[in-house]
Amino acid sequence: MSQFTRRSLIEAAAVAPLLAATVSQAADPPSKEAPMNSNAYGFQHTPVPLPFDAKGLHGISEKLIQSHWENNYVGASKALNTVRGRLSQALSDSNTPPYVYTGLKREQSIRTGSVVLHEFYFGNLGGDGKAPADMRTRISQSFGTYDAWESEFRKIGQGLGGGSGWVVLGFNEHLKLLENYWLADHATNPAFTKPILVMDMYEHAYQMDYGAAAAKYIDAFFANIQWDAVAKRLV
């Protein structure tokens, strides 16, 4: 066999699996388990509508909720989309200084945290605030009593009053631990932790209704928790 023929066979053997994979991917329908958005640079986030009637909350006005949703959440979503576009442009430009690029990545982290945490926050509002027995039991298993959990959650929120941050009841997937977490900003989420209940403690979440009275806002938050949504996150 000539060298040319032997080389041709080797190259054909190397390419064949790639061609087969390409044909298979083209013929098979997309897997339902495949991520819907796989483009790390081109993905554009679409804001999620409020999952409840803004007029129906107790102690949190429609005006406040609409302003919070539109100006803070939708604003963060638009900013995130803009940052993604800038990242793509900066990465394709070999003259982009690394410190400029990492500055954009920092903004991406902050905007991503804002979008995700706001979606969890609005998603756990709209209920009657009454935790069902199974949720009280589940929380008690981690905190001793349900009241002990609520007391700590509220205390963290009060400590953030007048400033910024989030209070999160989260399940750490690595440690297998349900805990309350203090978040100073959108980018300080505990590693590998799934948010179960999220409370926004930035002043924009309550100032319009309560001024500096953060404790009254926390009361209103608890009165509107949608515990069915919280329970689904804990599954």
Walk me through this protein's architecture.
This protein is mainly alpha-helical. 55% of the residues lie in helices and 9% in strands. It is built from eight helices and three strands; from the N terminus they run H-H-H-H-H-E-E-E-H-H-H. The chain has helices at residues 3-27, 62-92, 98-123, 133-143, 146-160, 207-210, 214-223, 227-233; strands spanning 166-172, 177-183, 193-200. The chain has a three-stranded antiparallel β-sheet. Strand 1 (166-172) and strand 2 (177-183) form a beta hairpin. Helix 2 (62-92) packs antiparallel against helix 3 (98-123). It is globular, with a radius of gyration of 24 Å. The termini are far apart.
Low-confidence stretches at least 5 residues in length (pLDDT < 50)? 1-36
Write the element-wise H/E pattern from the N-terminal end onward. HHHHHEEEHHH
Largest sheet: 3 strands, antiparallel
Radius of gyration: 24 Å
What's the pLDDT, averaged over the residues? 87
What portion of the residues fall into strands of 2 or more residues?
A: 5-15%
Determine the number of helices (DSSP H or I, runs of at least 4 residues): 8
What structural class results from the helix and strand content?
A: mainly alpha
Strand order of the largest sheet: 2-1-3
Q: Identify the overall geometry.
A: globular
Gap between N and C termini: 63 Å
- How much helical structure, as a percent, in the residues? 40-55%
Strand runs, count? 3
